[in-house]
Write a structure and sequence with these properties.
This protein has 108 residues and is an alpha+beta fold. It is 19% helix and 24% strand. A hairpin with an 8-residue loop joins β2 and β3 (70-76).
């Protein structure tokens, strides 16, 4: 059962106040398949861009060649929905470096 506070946090996430926000837009948020997720962080309690508790960063391999092969998304740990797009990197090492700079730690 969801708590009132987590419900309010998810409602706040739907307000698009940054170009990376996915919820609250006309387009459907992406639904990455588990097999395409190559890196998943621990639950992060706060992020300055996402501005929400209980999110995790995932890195998805699109298997396309080019500069946007590895997509980086913030996912709500409560609902499982993608809420924020951090952009893309050409290599997994570049994407992991981005996660490290932002203090996201890999889930083990």
């Amino acid at each position: 059962m969801r708590t009132f506070k987590s419900h309010i946090n998810e409602l706040k996430m739907k307000i698009p106040n940054s170009k990376g926000w996915v919820l609250g837009t006309k387009d459907e948020p992406p639904k990455p398949k588990d097999k395409d997720i190559v890196w998943r962080s621990k639950v992060h309690h706060w992020d300055n861009d996402v501005r929400s508790d209980d999110t995790r960063l995932i890195i998805v391999d699109t298997k396309k060649s080019g500069k946007d092969r590895f997509q980086m998304w913030a996912v709500s740990d409560k609902s499982g929905k993608v809420v924020f797009h951090f952009g893309a990197k050409p290599t997994l090492d570049d994407a992991k470096a981005f996660a490290s700079i932002r203090k996201w730690q890999e889930k083990k």
